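In practice, a research group might receive sequence data for several interacting partners and want a quick structural hypothesis before committing to experiments. The following worked case mirrors that situation: the sequences arrive first, and a predicted assembly follows.
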Amino acid sequence: MNDRSTLLEIRNLDVSFFLDEGTVEAVQDVSLEIYHHYTLGIVGESGCGKSVLSQAIMRIVPPPGKICAGQIIFHGDSAPTDLVTLDGKGKSIRKIRGKEIALILQEPMAALSPLYTIGNQIRDALVQHHKLSGREARERVLDILSEVGIPKPEVRIDQYPFELSGGLRQRAVIAMAIVCRPQLLIADEPTTALDVTIQAQILSLFKRLKETLNISIIFISHDLAVISEIADEVAVMYNGRIVEQGPADKVFSEPLHPYTVGLIESVPKLGDASKERLSAIKGNVPDPFMRMKGCSFHPRCPIGRDDCTMENPKLTNVLPERAVACFVVEQEMTGTAGPQQNAVE
Amino acid sequence: MINYIIRRIFYMIPTLIIISMISFAVIQLPPGDYLTTKIAQLQAQDELINVDLIEALREEYGLDQPIYVQYGKWVWNILHGDFGYSWEWQRPVEEVIGERILLTAIISFTAMFMIYLLAIPVGIFSATHKYSVADYLITIVAFVGLALPNFLLALLLLFIGYVVFDVSLVGLFSSEFANAPWSVAKVGDLLKHLWIPVIVVGTTSTAGRLRVMRGNLLDELNKPYVMAARAKGLSEVKLLLKYPVRMALNPLISGLSILLPQMISGATITAVVLGLPTTGPMLLGALRSQDVYLAGAFILLLCTLTVISTLLSDILLAWSDPRIQYE
Amino acid sequence: MSADNQILLSVRRLKKYFPIKKGLLRREKGQVRAVDDVSFDIRRGETLGLVGESGCGKSTVGKLILRALKPTAGEIIFTLDDRQMRINELSDTELRPLRRHAQLIFQDPYASLNPRMTVREIIGEPILVNRETQIADLDARVVELMDLVGLDSRYLRRYPHAFSGGQRQRIGVARALALNPDLIIADEPVSALDVSIQAQILNLLSDIQQELELTYLLISHDLSVVEYVSNRVAVMYVGKLVELADTEEIFRHPRHPYTEALLMAVPRISERDRPETYTLSGNVADPANPPSGCYFHHRCRYATDICSTKPVVMKQVANGHQVACHRSRDLSLKGL
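A structural hypothesis for the assembly, expressed as tokens:
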């Protein structure tokens, strides 16, 4: 896999929300690389910063949120651009939004305005980025509707979102995102609101689109099983940071970070007849306003040590392609790490 | 859509019948009738009462008959364009109210136009620039506008007109045009005077609607579909107008239905202060002197107007929000 | 599960139709068959899982049992000691004793707790309303309940907003337990919770079941949760039960093609590139306008002519295994 070329590079990204109640550091020191024709899965629970990360890439973090540091370098067809340096409302970022990078939001009903037909809403991005006549645009919308597997597109194109079932609505939202053939598709919990059988349909649609459109996908979900089914690589987020990263099959078969281990062990697994007691992660998801010294998983961690509270562990490569942010694991694997020595990358 | 409109019109019929009954009942509520009031007046002035004339009038208008007969006669005549006779003005009601309704409508529609023309864009600006200096200024002005009673504003404007500019702002016409027949010059004179009542009548509603627009839009701006539109690469103005603004307009559209009758009846005090020849003061006078047919015609018109404007705003709403027709 | 297999709740031919009103005069133009001819038993001490996709009527079944909705037809019989309560026939006042024996745990821990009531008031309310305890003893009882569900009883006077989602769901469980019920209906009790919190609540539910000898009806769309918690599982599709069997039996040897499809659709961590992925095509049938024959036939890959013409009924195919499928005997379906 050495020949893979980079499509998007995130370096040391910090995003914070400046609220009256205090500052929420939603994304902290996140670095990621997304390659061409590749699916990166991001797993995490509510409030871990995974949605904010996707909004940051699109440069649509809603106020009072702000990108405070870091770079997001997009290697499109033209020269690499750092998206962070662009004007958030300017023309250059708008030429990338919807055309090069597209976003799919969680709730298919909420992502569509109830006042316009789905055809109308899918057409938006098309006429924004291409000079097309009304008839050409309609043809393209019809094509994309059948491409995402919506039956009878010539009827559906003129229907309102509330006239469609949940599954069809999510297909329409996907059509809206891919209508300009973007290179990168960010999908934020795209199957969470759907029933299992419809979820399976949408997942296989994503797999198919990745092949037919030759795109890269950032797939965000709280559902480990969904991520394990679709992702090439997975990044596990906790409290704004990536705590573990690696090839999906390896991360799920041999998780390293105690949080990843806890997540996998806490969900009941289908077909596991043993009915052993689930080992739940103790405690609660941390309060976003509270700033913790040291590793933020420490209060819930079964293997934590006293020195875990001293400073924040950095994401470190402990095996080829495997990175983890945990002093204890790092020491076990490499024999060297601890808060004091942890200056290396 | 057509089915929806037909159903709404169908629902209107019983509403209107009930309204006409209530209107008639209301004007019959005070003891006695116009004639007894008139007789009392004449007696007080020691004038000779022509008993035959009184009896003739009584018979003509069925005042000596049971109430439902009076009601039947009243409705039957209205359906034929005859609203009855105004005792007070000694003329048929439709003649008396005709011009006043026209002038009232001119003021009301101009004010309505102004209200929406101001409230919507300023509301949008205020919401998209939340907590900026401009937003705070707009908010302060809007609250003052909401708090200031119309008649006080009218007095204030009159006062400023007299003291600062030395002009009389009372009435809708200059004295030379007041009783003149309609002409181009009279229309011009009307336009010159129109802005004062329009400002007075429209200020509160403008301020109110501005706040509604701002609040609605602020709610809508946080909705995921706005983010989805932004993620398509649309420009801020374009996506704003197409998505959240259209959604935020819905409550304003449904608010249209109250606005129209509110302005006609609610501007009474203003009209008295400003000496406007509109319907408000006349309705007040008719109610005070038990001029039943005049008062009844007004109340009926007002209620019918409410029903019709509700229908219009509902149709507008159904057109603007496709979900409504399918309820 | 208790040894005597005594039946606590019997549901017989339960139906709930909602009218559809349309047109100029809003006349009744049809019915949504939310629950259509559903029969099952719940044995004392067991957990019956009721699974199905959204809109299949599973939550309506729960509401009918608690008589939050009045059934259109059918019987719901609650057996207590030697006494039987026919829930479907009772009037509102006669229903009060039922409230003591059957309680509900809601899905959304944020919406189901009154934000203006303290934890003490929320948990104590059912006790006060049913005049179970003297006011003086109320605090002691609430503290006992809080200990039972793993809430720190120092937080007695706090309001719900001070608690996390998992803790709120514990409050909801404590409220459901306040009257010592026999049956608890849990409608998607963990689906609104974070992944790491779900396990805490599932463990809690199984702990208190053992401790208090509770009987559960677990309503969920999540097959792994249902498999983990339930002794027996019933599968619903468009208002009808299509299969009912012991958990292990139904998951290993499903006899209904819909159950098979559901099992196939669930993504699993352990089985990444599943060899045979078969995704169910199409959408759930419209309960207002169901298709002829078996409601599932237009999505079923095994359907034959008879499936589109002849209606199906639940039939016993093995000991304790019921299925509503014309071809159940000649199909060999794939389980886990």
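Before designing any experiment, note the following. The CA atoms of residues 243 and 323 of chain C lie 4 Å apart. Chain C has a mean pLDDT of 86.
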